[in-house]
Amino acid sequence: MKTLPQLLQQNLIRDPDRIALHMLDTDSRQPISHKALMLGASGYCQALLAAGIRKGDVVIIILQHGLDLIYAFWGSILLGAVPSIMPFLTEKLSPETYRKSLTSLISVTNPAAIITYPAFMPEVQQAVRSTAGVGTLLSSDQITPINEIYPESLPGLACSPSDLAFLQHSSGTTGLQKGVALSHQAVIHQIESYAKAIRMTSADAVVSWLPLYHDMGLIAGFVMPILLRSPLVLMSPFDWVRAPYKLMQAVSDYRGTLSWLPNFAYNFCAQKIRERHLEGIDLSSWRAVINCSEPMRWQSHQMFLERFEPYGLRPSALATCYAMAENVFAVTQGGMDAPVTVDEIDASALQSGRAVVNGGNHRSVQMLSAGRPIENTELRVLTEGRRDAPERQIGEIAIRSNCMLTGYYNRQDLTEEAFFEGWYLTGDLGYLAGGELYVTGRKKEIIIVGGKNIYPQDLEELAGEVPGVHPGRVVAFGVFNPDLGTEDVGIVAESDRSEPEARHQIATQIRDHVTQNSDVAVRHVEAVDREWLLKTSSGKIARNANRDKFLRMRFPEPKLESES
Amino acid sequence: MIDQIIAFITTEIIKNPTRHISEDQSLISSGLIDSFGLVDLALFVEDTFGVRIEDVELTSSVFDTAAELAQLISKRLPDSGS
Fold it and tell me: Which CATH number is associated with domain B2-76?
């Protein structure tokens, strides 16, 4: 069993001039060879070593999408340190909130070093001051690629497979306290099994605009192609969201074969690209466009296919995947050997926890299969009593594999809670039919917006800060929006103010305050009377029940949220 | 023109038609229009006024308010300056 630094080294020896990645910036395209990648990363490795960072130390990287970020990540790996990529401050996010997030990340991970831009250093210093234990702050402008590589100066080459390779976090105060710690062997096992499932080789070319702080972007859109020597075409998520046609252009120009997209991106690309930006585009090289990381919709696939089939997109390219950082990435894969299975089931039976094939004239839901487990990953669907659910009965998805997380970093408590008799409880709901997995919803209370996991408690805390809102009497939830292909965030807050004007004002303030202090924009806000919110028998505010109550109030017609 | 822009933002982007937005209120840096809404805004401007806003211009350093956007559009209208 090898480790990540050894694989990088091996790639260098095999073919140093082979292109590892094409970095697409707003107005430039830069090819980076495996040798250039190693030299750039070694520069970071040397700088970290000089700063006293050692094997096993956590290094937090706060850099924007670009070469510095890439070199800093691999440089930490070459040292045998444990990098964690923290999302960079966005324009809308208030600096105070960002500082708070950073503080919560630092307090759990106790990083030995933080790497950032000189201009961002004061911001980081403020966050660091309120916590203890950060060793060094490193400025990215002080670090340059080196000219020659000496293997003896790369301590990471001596890592053992069970050592930690990196940490992966989801966003927000809650997510940043829950770092998924992954070992070298877990990452390599995942890549071996997943590459087999999608038959990925060095002849593939991956095109990605996904952020590197997210498992899909980090593993499928970064680590895997680089280690497998498949050229990676990488663009910034900020560029893509302003110009989604750039994905199609990159696939066409570089003969891209593989991409991963969250469901909303299918709708977004199908709806927001101008015809003139598709002139001359040829998508026939795309052999798999893999839908992953939020609920997958048949309608989104149809929309995407209709729009891009005239440009060469093959219907067989549409694929699906169920993945999570706790398994490094993929759990199942669908649509590779045969088209993705569509299971047409009875919508009302689904409400009661069963996936019944729709034989009659009932309203139906088209479920997209997430496919079958990848090699060395086992999957079960458990009933409330934690027994195996029969075929087509909805229950909690549990997994066991050779690529599981080592644990939530420094959170032994959370790690223990997450497992049941050696099985990782995903918190997702689904059913099995014909050996394939269908994901129907979530037991855990999490909102997924555009593929990004958002913890409702973070949003509720923010809404509670608005004057006129009763702190603790707020609920945040996700509402699926079929036009966007993802969830909208809804917030309901209790208030003593009953005048419509005052309520309207409170709602606006909640919307603005939460939007500026979180990673999402809030869509639905409602200020309601005291005692409006439903509680569970133990006195907790029931998020799903309140979401349903809100939907009945907002959409009195039976606009049933049958899906997740 | 400013009214048309604001009406589009309140009804189509933030889906809150009763909300009052002033012409000098920041739209992008405040997060009022999120990154997904920016493309909608650019498509709307092109379809309504026949003026292109390039994707690299969809940032608060180019325009951040309805008034600034209207000014940008006016400068690019074919009969501008006449």
Answer: 1.10.1200.10
